[in-house]
Amino acid sequence: MDKTTEIMFSEKDVGKNLYRKITYYTLAIEQDVLAKDKDEADKLFLDNGGIDHSQINHEITETKNGVENYMVDANYLESGKTNYVGQVAYTDDEFAKEDGDVEINDMKDESPFKDYKENVLKEDSDIDIALNLEAEEQLGK
């Protein structure tokens, strides 16, 4: 058999013509990632996102009534810019911190990420300072 095509043919097909058509499809992949900033997000998308090219094979195509695959391929064309969606924040609930209830808040401005422990320790120390100042005022210091 000739390796020009995957189509099976025999002497009963003498006189028929073999046709090939390339069809280009646009595939959009929209992915999300949590990152400390846009640069880290871009690196994560580049290193860990995108398309699994091993899945681009004959199984994603339709072949019937004599139509067979010659080639299946996917090529990178372009991508949009990385857009800020929102920030992980505590929900608007008085017990959110205590319960660990968080959400993506799209009303928060994009800001550089600070380590969670750093934020918690700073918050606790600010509270401690406020409590100490209040206690000192009550004692007349």
Structural description of this entry:
- The chain has 141 residues and is mainly α.
- Strands 1-2 form a two-stranded antiparallel sheet.
- The relative contact order is 0.09.
- It has 3 domains: 1-79, no CATH class; 84-110, no CATH class; 114-141.
- Helices cover 28% and strands 6% of the residues.
- It has 3 helices and 2 strands, in the order αβαβα.
- The mean pLDDT is 84.
- The protein is rod-shaped, with a radius of gyration of 30 Å.
Shape by Cα distribution: rod-shaped
Structural class: mainly alpha
In percent, how much strand structure appears in the residues?
5-15%
Q: Please tally the helical runs, counting DSSP H or I stretches of 4 or more residues.
A: 3
Largest sheet: 2 strands, antiparallel
Order of helices and strands: HEHEH
Instruction: Determine the mean pLDDT.
Output: 84
Number of strands: 2
Oligomer: single chain
Q: Give, in spatial order, the strands making up the sheet with the most strands.
A: 1-2
Provide the domain count. Answer: 3
Weakly predicted, low-confidence segments = none
Measured between the Cα atoms of the first and last residue, the distance is 99 Å
Radius of gyration: 30 Å
